[in-house]
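Before the break, one more example. Copy the sequence into your notebook; we will annotate it together after we see the structure.
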Amino acid sequence: MSRICPHCNYARKAEDTAPDWQCPACERAYAKAGGSLPPESMRQYGPAVGSEQRGGLGKWFLMAVVLGGAFWFGRPMLQQLDSPARVAAASSEQPQVVLYATSWCGYCKMTREFFAANGIRYTEEDIEQSSTALQRHKKLGGNGVPLIVVGDEVVNGWNEQALRQLLGPWIRS
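Here is what the structure looks like once it is written out:
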């Protein structure tokens, strides 16, 4: 008769005190040929009679539906957080726009024309004419012109896409 557990491969010793039907190491029940069987409540080697497995795919489907619903209905809250222009649009008042420029710069001219064509109110600061404008320009990290400040956002150089994104609600279509 084998004295090795079929579950953990423990070799039973003479001094082990566990019953014949139970492994002393892993404490799992097993039936030896010709030995006594463990009590019915302690048999762990097979599915219980009458037990059914439930909830395989159903649980995953339900979880997918719940997560999908949370994503779908939570989207508006996430969209409110993504853009300062949207927050400003909710107040329906155009944010303050400051253009740091020079008189000879071609990109500054394009920025002025963009603002004029789209009805954007702005304040222009010439960094060659005003030392305070030059200091503010440097403080904002300006390396060149134009430097455009829309509310709290800074746009370095001519970037029509960024201006359209920041000023979208106030641009004339």
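The mean pLDDT is 82. Residues 56-81 form the longest helix (26 residues). Try to locate both features in your own notes.
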